[in-house]
Amino acid sequence: MKLKNEIRLENLRALISEAGNQAKLAELIGVAPSYINTLTKQRIDNATGKSKGIGEATARKLETAMSKPFGWLDQDHSYDESVKDGYIELEYYDIRSSAGPGSVVDYVPAISKMLVLEDWAREYLKTIEPKNIRIINNKGVSMYPTINDGDLLFVDISCNRYDGDGIYIILDDEELKTKRLIKEDGIIRIISDNPSPAYKEKTVSAKNQHTLMICGKVRRYFALKDAT
Question: What pTM did the predictor assign?
Answer without folding.
Answer: 0.62
